[in-house]
Design brief:
alpha/beta, single chain, about 35% helix, seven-stranded mixed beta sheet, about 15% strand, binds pyridoxal-5'-phosphate, elongated, four-stranded antiparallel beta sheet, about 475 residues
Length: about 475
């Protein structure tokens, strides 16, 4: 809208001001003199208060102007603007050097950018409605079968079992492989807590090992060093969209006869030597939480090429109930089922996963191009043997600068998320540490930038402006 629409002459009456507010449809009018110099701001609430205090609409604006009002000059930068907005102030006039109104800022959603936001503009609502109207709202229904089959297909794996969330998928994987008390399972120090918690759920002992400096993923050499006669499995986590070195990990697993459970919660569609993650391990686990590459609200999936493991996971996730004999329970199972409603959303997300991954890649490229000129910023390495995806675009800055970078970005309305805290730095997991040198070092330097599909180059330029000031 043109700023003209928001102006009102100081020579007018309160009625004129009210008309200007009405015309501009923004609840505000900027009061100017004949040279267009800003004299004050009146909002609809001001008029209401004046009328209640006994003024009338024919009273002059001149005598009723509040001397305190907020304005900006053309030179003010983004952060100062955002600081001036409050729950009451939504529109701020901008003046030039001669105090003439030239434009205005309006508070809108884009002022605040979240770290992540699902994209639900495809067939999500349509399929969800379809599932709803079918009355198959629980864990039976066509979308469950479709989602399992199609997602497994997408990853190049034979069987998919949809479950209630990614943590349940990890728990089921460990149960299905028979991991239990007395066994050791190797996990990376940098991951979401669900990875290690699942190991503890089955009573096994987690062994936390260090990550690689370049990939930020579990270091295969450290896996080998941590192996004992009790080691039964390893859970490589493809972190922030970066695939682990699956060649080395599979080699070690074969050599020492270990199970491999891939934690793919952050890397749908990523690949190692052109082969998709999730297709290497005995079982791989995905999450479809709201901030993951595709979402079902809450949800997860186990993938496996083994018919036996597929059957076992299905049994475990559905109360251990016999397939042949209903309500006869063969083992103590769980209720870790996904609903048809969730799977309906999942199907719509899966239809466009490649398009969404491509857009995420373009966003990461844009970040690398625009923020790449800031000397203290380092991105996650792109390694020749792996095709990473952009889950959360994550950067490293010198340790002493991380807090100020995050603070300034947040002050400018850009939400950022700190790097994972190493498991080894949390009281409840400390006793399980084997090695953690790189993880401790890197975690103090990293944070994730907003990574959702509607982020524009203007947004990234705004981030650059904020960060460039810190050089
Ligand atoms: C998100 C995540 C999980 C857990 O997924 P939920 O669906 O939230 O239970 C597990 N591992 C990693 C690495 C994750 O990022």
């Amino acid at each position: 809208m043109e700023v003209e629409q928001l102006l009102c002459s100081i020579d007018g009456t309160l009625k004129d001001a009210l008309e200007a507010i009405n015309r501009g449809k923004k609840g505000t009018t900027f009061i100017v003199n004949e040279r267009r110099e800003l004299q004050g701001v009146i909002v609809d609430g001001d008029i209401r208060r004046l009328l209640l205090s006994g003024k009338t609409l024919s009273d002059k604006i001149q005598e009723n102007l509040n001397p305190q009002y907020v304005y900006m000059t053309e030179k003010d930068d983004a952060i100062e603007i955002i600081e001036k907005f409050s729950s009451k102030i939504r529109i701020i006039p901008i003046v030039n050097e001669s105090n003439q109104v030239v434009n205005y800022y309006e508070y809108n959603k884009r002022i605040s950018i979240p770290v992540s936001k699902p994209e639900l503009k495809g067939n999500e609502f349509k399929y969800l409605t379809d599932a709803f109207l079918s009355t198959w709202v629980s864990s039976t229904g066509k979308y469950i079968d479709m989602f399992e089959e199609n997602f497994a297909n997408y990853c190049g794996v034979k069987y998919g079992v949809a479950v209630s969330n990614g943590t349940a998928a990890l728990h089921l994987a460990l149960l299905a492989l028979g991991i239990r008390a007395g066994d050791e399972v190797i996990v990376p120090d940098i991951t979401f807590a669900a990875t290690i918690n699942a190991v503890l759920y089955v009573g096994a002992t987690p062994v936390i090992v260090d990550i690689e400096k370049d990939s930020w993923c579990i270091n295969p050499d450290e896996i080998e060093k941590a192996i004992t006669p009790k080691t039964k499995a390893v859970i490589p986590v493809h972190i922030y969209g970066q695939p682990c070195n699956m060649k080395k990990i599979m080699h070690i697993a074969n050599k020492y006869n270990l199970f491999v459970i891939e934690d793919c919660a952050e890397a749908h569609g990523a690949a190692f030597e052109q082969r998709l993650v999730g297709s290497f391990g005995d079982i791989s686990c995905f999450s479809f939480f709201g901030n993951k590459v595709i979402t079902t609200g809450e949800g997860g999936m186990c993938l496996t090429d083994s018919e036996e493991l597929n059957n076992r996971i299905r049994l475990l996730k559905d109360h251990g109930m016999s397939k042949e004999r209903k309500y006869y329970h063969e083992i103590i199972g769980y209720n870790y089922r996904m609903t048809n409603l969730q799977a309906a959303i999942g199907m719509a997300q899966l239809e466009k996963i490649d398009v969404m991954l491509e857009k995420r890649n373009e966003l990461e490229e844009m970040y690398r191009t625009i923020l790449g000129s800031i000397p203290f910023i380092e991105f996650q390495y792109i390694l020749e043997d792996r095709q990473k995806i952009a889950w959360l675009v994550t950067v490293l800055v010198p340790e002493h600068m991380r807090e100020i970078c995050m603070k300034e970005l947040k002050r400018a309305g850009i939400d950022v998320r700190p790097f994972f805290i190493p498991l080894s730095e949390m009281e409840i997991y400390r006793e399980y540490v084997f090695s953690n040198q790189n993880s401790v070092e890197l975690s103090k330097q990293g944070f994730s930038l907003p990574t959702s599909l509607d982020i524009t180059s203007e947004d990234v330029l705004r981030m650059k402006e904020v960060l460039a000031k810190l050089i």
